[in-house]
């Protein structure tokens, strides 16, 4: 029988522990937008030279906890997985949690601070100006929580990690499938090395019969219907906002294949998704579909993906960057020949359908894990 004792969080877990970094050296850097809700690990990061200034510092296996609204409410919490030096730094808006040797398990720390036992009190502790409120560190450190003994912590973490390992494996497969579709897109429609290209005449930089046209008249984009506060915990339909995380809702406004493009973002890092089925979207998220029969949703997805950095530069707004329909109208898209477009659609749709299936499996795994988590963390489910 495991033993549970009430202790302060700071007695079992180190908060913002010291990490030594050398000024002028390059380290992995994790910004807050790299953390995706519901994903245990964050491995998608860049490199930056450490200038000795403020910011969070962490080592491999530490948990990064977004302290600012709305990131905390959206559960932007993840474990850092970094190689090389094993240390890194990141956004000033992270609290860093680390296990204490002999007292806590690092995977258990992640699951605990991701749970309602820590997140909800942290949200309630927020202070500051509207829209920039932050959780209070000392309040979190002094939270009284019932902790199990170390062997029980390890068993709980192993059960929950089995779900996250499957999710991460599926995510790797999704990334590989998207890369295969993107490589074929670039080979045929960017480098123009499509089947039979050796015999094709080029006119004004394009294969004969191809054209470069505006989005207007070739792509349709409608906006979603919901406000972001209408998402629910476990609705039947996917809800796409301008964030890079898919939420849930009880209603749908679109049924079919489409590409979803975020219409606003504080940093200009616009979100992009492919979907096929019943869904709803935020009022400033564009549901994009082809008008021209020589275009397909997978093709449009990669066209928009190539434009993301340009969108960031071209978008307007001070505090928030906006993409308007008028702006989108004037961007250009290459229209290939029907036969080649149909062949690409056939191949890419097969890959994208498998991606959608894997995403659905991940949603089910996430749901099962999230049902288990509170029961395990409260001791109601014996391990």
Q: What do these coordinates show?
A:
The protein has three domains: 144 residues, Adenine-n6-DNA-methyltransferase TaqI, Chain A, domain 2; 88 residues, Helix Hairpins; 125 residues, DNA methylase specificity domains (Adenine-n6-DNA-methyltransferase TaqI, Chain A, domain 2, Alpha-Beta Complex), CATH 3.90.220.20. The strands form seven sheets. Strands 15-21-18-20-16-17 form a six-stranded mixed β-sheet. A five-stranded mixed β-sheet has the order 2-10-7-8-4. A four-stranded mixed β-sheet has the order 5-3-9-6, with no helix packed on it. It is of the alpha+beta class. The mean pLDDT is 91.
Topology, please?
Blueprint: E1 4-8, H1 9-12, E2 13-15, E3 26-30, E4 41-42, E5 46-49, E6 56-59, E7 63-66, E8 77-80, E9 87-90, E10 94-99, H2 106-114, H3 116-124, H4 137-141, E11 144-148, H5 150-189, E12 202-203, E13 206-207, E14 211-214, E15 219-223, E16 237-240, E17 246-249, E18 254-262, E19 264-265, E20 272-281, E21 285-290, H6 297-314, E22 321-322, H7 325-329, E23 332-335, H8 338-378
Parallel strand pairs: 3-9, 4-8, 16-20
Antiparallel strand pairs: 1-11, 2-10, 3-5, 6-9, 7-8, 7-10, 12-13, 14-23, 15-21, 16-17, 18-20, 18-21, 19-22
């Amino acid at each position: 029988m495991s033993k549970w004792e009430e202790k302060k969080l700071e007695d079992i877990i180190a908060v913002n522990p010291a990490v030594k970094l050398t000024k002028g050296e390059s380290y992995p850097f994790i910004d807050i937008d790299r953390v995706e809700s519901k994903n245990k690990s964050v491995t998608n990061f860049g490199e930056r030279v450490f200038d000795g200034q403020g910011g969070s510092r962490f080592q491999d296996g530490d948990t990064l906890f977004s302290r600012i609204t709305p990131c905390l409410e959206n559960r932007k919490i993840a474990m850092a997985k970094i190689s090389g030096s094993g240390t890194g730094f990141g956004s000033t808006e992270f609290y860093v949690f680390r296990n204490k040797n002999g007292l806590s398990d690092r995977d258990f720390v992640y699951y605990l601070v991701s749970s309602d036992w820590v997140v909800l009190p942290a949200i309630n502790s927020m202070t500051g100006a509207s829209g920039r409120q932050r959780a209070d560190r000392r309040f979190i450190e002094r939270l009284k929580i019932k902790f199990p003994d170390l062997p029980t912590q390890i068993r709980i973490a192993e059960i929950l990690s089995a779900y996250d390992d499957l999710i991460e494996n599926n995510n790797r497969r999704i990334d590989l499938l998207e890369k295969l579709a993107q490589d074929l897109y670039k080979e045929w429609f960017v480098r123009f090395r499509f089947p039979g290209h050796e015999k094709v005449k080029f006119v004004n930089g394009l294969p004969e019969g191809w054209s470069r046209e505006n989005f207007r008249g070739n792509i349709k984009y409608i906006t979603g219907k919901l406000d972001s506060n209408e998402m629910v915990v476990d609705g039947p339909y996917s809800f796409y906002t301008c964030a890079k995380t898919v939420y849930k809702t009880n209603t749908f406004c679109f049924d079919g294949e489409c590409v979803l493009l975020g219409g606003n973002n504080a940093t200009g890092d616009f979100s992009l998704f492919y979907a096929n089925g019943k869904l709803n979207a935020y009022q400033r998220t564009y549901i994009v579909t082809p008008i021209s029969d020589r275009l397909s949703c997978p093709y449009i997805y990669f066209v928009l993906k190539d434009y993301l950095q340009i969108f960031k530069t071209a978008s307007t707004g001070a505090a928030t960057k906006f993409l308007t329909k008028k702006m989108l109208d004037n961007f250009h898209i290459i229209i290939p020949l029907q036969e080649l477009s149909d062949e690409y659609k056939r191949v890419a749709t097969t890959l994208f359908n498998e991606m959608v299936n894997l995403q659905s499996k991940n949603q089910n795994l996430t749901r099962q894990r999230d049902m288990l988590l509170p029961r395990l963390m409260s001791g109601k489910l014996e391990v």
